[in-house]
Amino acid sequence: MSTESDPTYIELDDSPDAMSPLLEEAEQAEAERDEPAQRQPLSRKGAAHIPSDHVQRLRLLEALLFASAEPVAEQDLQVRFGDGVDIASLLAELAELYAHRGVNLVAFGGRWAFRTSPDLGDYLRMETEVQQKLSRAAIETLAIIAYHQPVTRAEIESIRGVATSKGTLDILMEAGWIRPGRRRETPGRPVTWITTPHFLDHFGLETLRDLPGVEDLRAAGLLDSRPAIGPLSGGASATPETPEED
User: Which of 62, 90, 94, 205 is an S-S bond match for 200, by CB 3.0 to 4.6 Å?
Assistant: First the structure.
């Protein structure tokens, strides 16, 4: 014969006086849980506390400077480490450690950064030769000087039919292919232009007589059937040279 037991009911006292101890206990537990985070010192950037060991501080300073893409101001490092750390002394000690290495810790106007040692500069420098393509104006001017030297700027303009800018002559001078010659004994005593020995060496010529003639240039397809270079004429007027030719 089975019997059913009566259900048991627990009556809770939800009065303010009964709930007050429970609320106080919960608030105290929550305060104790948050207390360690409040006691932990944080830097301005929210990083962990600074190690107390001197060697660890030196290593941290080294890591901060090495990881920074730009020189770091000493005052920013002081803020990062806090007022209790002599950042100037740490920087001086770290600079001394790197004084005889391939990279040195140096200061630029109150900012610190790692830089390669100055005595290694010659070994780190790499030189590459950049070939600059001459403009059509420069090629034409060089050809006129080579075939008509000594020739003045006015004569170059007369042959080309356009004004020759100063930049064209400067490019040829920087290349070492032309140089100023004697002044022409004419009114105004204009400067003449001639080629240099470097011009002959660069183009594989022993003398100017080895320059290709008109027939050679035409055979090589460098000249058409029309005259490429006209005779000198003092009365010809030159039109301004367009910037695209330079």
Answer: 205
Q: Are 181 and 192 in contact (CB under 8 A)?
A: yes
% of the chain residues with pLDDT over 90: 30
The answer to whether residues 164 and 156 touch, using CB atoms and an 8 Å cutoff, is yes
The tens digit of pLDDT for each residue in 72-104 reads 999 999 999 988 899 999 999 999 999 999 999
User: 46: which 2 tokens?
Assistant: 């929210």
* Whether residues 109 and 185 fall in one domain: no
Helix and strand numbers (H, E) in the chain are: 10, 6
Is 6 among the domain residues? no
> Rounded to the nearest 5°, which phi and psi values hold at 171?
-60, -45
C-alpha radius of gyration, the chain, whole number: 42
- CA distances (Å), origin 164, targets 71, 101, 230, 234: 48, 55, 16, 16
- pTM value is 0.41
Q: Which two tokens stand for residue 41?
A: 């010192």
Q: What's 13-64 look like in SS3?
A: CCCHHHHHHHHHHHHHHHHHHHHHHHHCCCCCCCCCCCCCCHHHHHHHHHHH
212 and 189 in one domain?
Answer: yes
* CA terminus-to-terminus distance, the chain: 119
